[in-house]
Specification:
Layout (H helix, E strand, L loop, with lengths): L5 H26 L1 H9 L10 H29 L3 H26 L1 H28 L16
Helix pairs in contact: 1-3, 1-5, 3-4, 3-5, 4-5
Length: 154
């Protein structure tokens, strides 16, 4: 087993975080925009012109999640093998830990969340799997003994 390449985890994690951020933007700004408008109208969500801090926080959280995806792929790769299936397993694990932990209680307790939760869950699952696959594609480890870096992770 080789050591985890921190630079490749960082590279893959930032790239995966960017994919997660774009997925969040598409989901919330396009697909769920009418629901957000209703929440703003009812005073349950701040107006769009005040979303700057929330967007920045989402970007930071998405980069952190991307780093988690890349690190988890690198950590389980020696046991599960390299490639897309391992990336999908890592993506599913992170989606279940982060997304379901947050949204399942909201679905149960909030009638408003029941409207958006199925679409939110499916879109986020796809985005997490794409982000994990991108992180795996960019990940590689230093070959033992030779000091060269070999491209792996497809």
């Amino acid at each position: 087993m080789g050591k985890i390449s921190g630079w490749r985890v960082l590279l893959g994690g930032v790239f995966a975080g960017a994919i997660l951020f774009l997925g969040d933007g598409f989901l919330h700004m396009k697909l769920l925009a009418s629901i957000a408008d209703g929440l703003i109208k009812d005073g349950l969500l701040i107006p769009r012109d005040q979303w700057g801090a929330g967007v920045a926080a989402t970007a930071a959280a998405d980069v952190a999640t991307g780093l988690l995806l890349a690190w988890l792929y690198a950590a389980v790769r020696p046991r599960l093998g390299r490639g897309l299936m391992t990336a999908i397993i890592a993506g599913l694990a992170v989606w279940m830990l982060l997304f379901l932990q947050n949204w399942l209680p909201q679905f149960v307790w909030s009638p408003r969340a029941r409207v958006s939760a199925p679409l939110d869950a499916v879109v986020n699952l796809v985005v997490y799997l794409v982000a994990a696959s991108a992180a795996a594609w960019l990940y590689s480890e230093a070959d033992e003994g030779s000091g060269t870096v070999r491209r792996r992770g497809r």
